[in-house]
Structure formats: C-alpha cells, structure tokens
Amino acid sequence: MASHHGDDHPIHVPQPSISPPILGLGVMFLAFGVLVGAPFLVIGGVIFVIGIATWLIDDARAYQAAGEPTDGAHH
After folding, report:
1. This prediction's pTM
2. How many CB atoms lie within 10 A of CB 47?
3. From CA 44, how far away is CA 57, in angstroms rounded?
4. In a domain, 47, yes or no
C-alpha cells in the first residue's frame, strides 16, 4: 500500500545486514547467562558489543553512501 504526497522520492530501504541477528544472539546468551552463570554473560556481552559495532559501521557506510543533500537542506 503506497501513499504519495506529491513527491517522487523513492522509499528508503536499508541494505541487508547481519547486525540484528548478531544482537539477538548476544541478548539470548546474556539472558541465558543470567540463568546459568557468568561465562554465558561474558560471551553474550562480547557478541552484543560486536553486533552494536557492526550495526554502527553499517550505518556509517550508508550515511557516507547517501552523500550530501542536493537541495541545500540541512538535517
């Protein structure tokens, strides 16, 4: 269901990323670590940080690829 507001701008769809599943895995290990013990907390924390880092890297690359706006608007 597409809605048009008088402009022909394409819909922004982010590139596929491995970051959300990595974050989910990290959260799963963190939760399991709360129940079982510290080793799973450490593993989950490391995986979670890796997921955040990959997500930030993906976002920075997308921002650079988008370039500067051509209409002079500042965000």
Report:
1. 0.69
2. 19
3. 20
4. yes
Residues 21, 47 contacting (CB under 8 angstroms): no
What does DSSP assign to residue 14? P
Q: Tens of pLDDT along 53-65?
A: 999 999 888 888 8
Q: What is the pLDDT of residues 21-56, one digit of tens each?
A: 999 999 999 999 999 999 999 999 999 999 999 999
Domain that holds residue 47: 29-63
Question: Number of folded domains in the chain?
Answer: 1
C-alpha closest to that of 26 among 44, 51, 46: 44
> Considering the domain boundaries, does residue 35 fall inside one?
yes
